[in-house]
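We treat protein structure as text, and this decision shapes the records that our systems exchange. The tokens are whole numbers drawn from a learned vocabulary of local backbone shapes. Below, we set out a record of this kind in full and without editing:
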Amino acid sequence: MFTFLLVVQAIIAAALVTVILMQRSEGGGLTSSGSPSGLMSARGAADFLTRATGVLAGLFIAMSVLLAFLAASRSATTVDTSLQRRAPAAQTQPVQTQPQQGAPAPAPADNGVPLAN
């Protein structure tokens, strides 16, 4: 059900973009008052596109609210942890004991960096 509504939402969004791009960019838009002239005239087509934009925008908002409600009420049984950062393993330093009498002292660690000395 959720996937079907998501596809319908995508179709509504594509139709909304198409209707908006078909309109002239001279201003007015949804705030202009229309005249009851025929649908096939230039002004009638503009009124139709304006109404279609309003209807599609309302459907888009209503579907967005519905999809948000459905997504919030779905009970997820698993959590995707593929992007979770893992803490680095704790690095333990070896315990250094006192060298015995006559034993050579251990060489200083260079932390794996050549020419560190």
The radius of gyration is 34 Å. The chain has a mean pLDDT of 76.
